[in-house]
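Colleagues,

For the teaching module next term, I've prepared a clean inverse folding example: a structure given as tokens, and then the sequence designed for it. I'd like students to try predicting residues themselves before seeing the answer, so please don't circulate the second half yet.
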């Protein structure tokens, strides 16, 4: 569905098939201009998992990146968290949110600005829509993790934000082929995941896995990124990977496609197991409300997120 404040347009979901492509690690080895994970976000990833890190130490690292500091404070004061008191400093944000929540914001806000630059696909593959999808999956995964106790909520949100990151590598490294894939998917002939594999030879979930390993993300986050198209995974049986896969499945059911739009169609009924997932997430409208709030704080530009064209 294309989403704008005040209205929702329903778009039909399409099945996604798990596929394998060329060696994604080999692709990354051939890339000279692949953006690194921003240094501060990389340090925060490690510090947030270190019990010896104090709030003051984490705040000092965050304060070295002024843009990230501003985003952290904006998100802290957004409706996403809904604190009664206003957060005005990084240290207050760390204390109020907690280390793991700060990692959510640092990684999410940093990645939103990591893959930039105009590509041939820019007219048909909208990065605002891409990040809208990613954040919606992150919020749904976070809520599902809280309800199911199958994974840490902060890990689920981070993995949700990261799950399609391999798609941005394809967009940057193979722009002409990626444009061809997007156009094929827009014609309704094949899901984008399959069109990418046909046009580029690579699978974006495998690229995401390789990139996560390159950036030294924790293994369970990398596994969740790799498995996000395997909708047979469940929170009860597969932990974090199952949480992210079902959150992505929910987003796709409601037509929250990542970066391109589709013709209007009739929304199919939720399968019983997916209805349970939506209920555990608090309902799709609640997911979208929180996702809007996070995007506003992280990007500072909320107007274009899932606004109807």
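(Answer key — instructors only)
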């Amino acid at each position: 569905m294309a989403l704008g404040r005040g209205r929702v347009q329903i778009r039909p979901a399409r099945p996604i098939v798990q596929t394998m492509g060329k060696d994604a690690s080999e692709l990354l080895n051939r890339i000279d201009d692949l953006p690194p994970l921003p240094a501060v976000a990389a340090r925060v990833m490690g510090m947030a998992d270190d019990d010896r890190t104090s709030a003051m130490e984490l705040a000092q690292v965050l304060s070295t990146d002024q843009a990230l500091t501003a985003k952290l404070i904006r998100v802290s004061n957004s409706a996403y968290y809904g604190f009664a008191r206003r957060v005005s400093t990084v240290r207050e944000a760390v204390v109020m949110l907690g280390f793991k929540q700060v990692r959510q914001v640092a990684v999410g806000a940093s990645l939103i600005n990591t893959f930039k630059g105009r590509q041939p696909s820019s007219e048909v593959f909208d990065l605002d829509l891409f990040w809208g999808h990613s954040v919606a999956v992150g919020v749904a995964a976070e809520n599902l993790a809280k309800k199911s106790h199958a994974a840490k909520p902060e890990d689920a949100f981070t993995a949700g934000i990261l799950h399609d990151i391999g798609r941005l590598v394809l967009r940057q490294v193979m722009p002409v082929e990626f444009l061809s894939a997007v156009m094929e998917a827009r014609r309704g002939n094949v899901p984008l995941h399959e069109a990418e594999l046909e046009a580029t030879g690579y699978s974006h979930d495998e690229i995401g896995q390789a990139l996560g390993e390159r950036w030294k993300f924790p293994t369970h986050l990398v596994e969740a990124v790799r498995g996000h198209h395997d909708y047979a995974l469940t929170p009860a049986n597969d932990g974090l990977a199952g949480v992210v896969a079902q959150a992505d499945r929910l987003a796709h059911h409601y037509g929250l496609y990542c970066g391109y739009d589709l013709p209007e169609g009739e929304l199919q009924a939720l399968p019983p197991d997916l209805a349970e997932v939506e209920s555990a997430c608090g309902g799709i409208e609640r997911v979208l409300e929180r996702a809007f709030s996070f995007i506003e704080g992280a990007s500072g530009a909320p107007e274009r997120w899932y606004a109807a064209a």
